[in-house]
Predict the structure.
Amino acid sequence: MKRITYLLLIILFFGVMPISSASNEWNDLKSRHFIIYYKNAPREFIKTVEQSAEDYYFDIVDELGFTRDQIWTWDERVKIYIYDNQQDYLTLARQASWSAGSTMLGSKVIRTFPSAHGFFDSLLPHELGHIIFRDYVGFESNIPLWFDEGVAMYQEKAKRWGANQEVKSAIQDKSFCSLSDLRLTRKSSQSDVNLFYAESASVVYYLISEFGSFKFLNFCRNLKKGLSFNRALKKSYYRFENVNDLNKTWVGYLKNE
Ligand SMILES: [Zn+2]
């Protein structure tokens, strides 16, 4: 009986050993603002990631107006880890099964895999939006999550216009949630989550498109100085006393759009 158990253990052990000779070491490709780590992904793909990431970097800092701020220096490169596939990513990066890519607030690390849905159009600009915005404003101010997400969503150009339509429908069917109550919790349903992101994208788009990137930069500067969100809003946009005021004007704008 004991011998059979040993035999079974040996079969089980060798049965799960990987047969492939694929490399398990991280290779890297360094560019001006990024270090891309990868194992077996094709070099051509990695080069495309590098080029896109550099292009997005310049687009994002330019659109948010950060290039005009001489004081800001970008001193540490973003690390992008490209796992071989979804399984590798989920296991090694310890992510939830629905996740296609991630960055932790405060870190300059993006983790993803080549076949991730919307990798070039959505995921890369979104995660870079988070990193560049926080690299600029820092963590002094108490910024609501919807604003962080709105800035990141703003970088996913295809989603900017759809968001307004979604928020308008929510206003009509009274499922709209005002900015001061807008948050994500474990209990948020899928439709709550969708509305959260649509409202976040729509209000940031409204701020930049209606009042220009110079005011937006000024707002970010005030956040960087550590002013509270409401104080920074009033100091940069004058017409908004606080978030409730912004909410009211934005909703009025959407109703007349
Ligand atoms: Zn995000």
Observations:
- The chain has nine helices and five strands.
- The radius of gyration is 22 Å.
- Residues 145-256 form one domain.
